[in-house]
Amino acid sequence: MTIDEAKFILSAYRPNGSDAGVPAFGDALRMAASDPSLSAWFAQSRAHDAAVAGKLRQIAPPAGLREAILAGAHVSDSQRSHGPGLAWLAGLAAAAALAFVLFSMKAPARPETGAAAFASFAINDMAYEKHGGRGEPASALVAQLETKGARMPGAEQIDFEKLRDTGCRTLNLAGHDVIEVCFSRDGATFHLYVTRRDGPVGDSVARGPSFITEAAGAAAVWSDSRFDYAIASAAGAEAIRRLL
Predict the structure, then answer these.
(1) pLDDT tens-digit profile of 64-79?
(2) Measured in Å, how far apart are the chain's first and last C-alpha atoms?
(3) DSSP state, residue 129
(4) I need a surface site. Which of 52, 87, 175, 216 has the fewest CB within 10 A?
């Protein structure tokens, strides 16, 4: 299988991860897990699809659209000859919705569109990438995170540059550095991702954690005055919620 063939297959993969067990995606997923460039493309593609789906969910159809469409199907030839009628109105609404979808699909992929994209990025990286890191600051942060009952760190406890420059695992999301540390708590493994506040997440996350669950696991995303955070785990949303 070539990279282009894998991309073709993975372009049909639903961003919520519900296709993880579908055999048709198996070879392409394994290739994405072992190929860094394909993995980065896959994360970006899923983030874009999640962002488009989120925008579509925010659209409320016009009142009476369903009735107009059903009524339009029964308009007689004589009724259609006297004016645009309900069928024309329903067709115009359908065309507008299709135009919006096509515009969204043609827009450049932008994983920086919000919390869902960052969460999907974290879950994908957790599930398919190799993890590790080094450096005394990273080890100290892991020790803090593994302390029973400890809450997640805030801006005053994160020295982003020192963590990045001394060997903490660093990723790239839409041109922004993201550092990651792995830790264990109560028998579960968690992956904490931190990026500067000018990174991929919108201001809405500052209001509190936002959760997303996919087949591979769950993630929570939140922000403070300096950083955006995501924490992902195969243990599920409730296990993450207990840490926050």
Answers:
(1) 777 777 776 655 455 5
(2) 42
(3) S
(4) 175
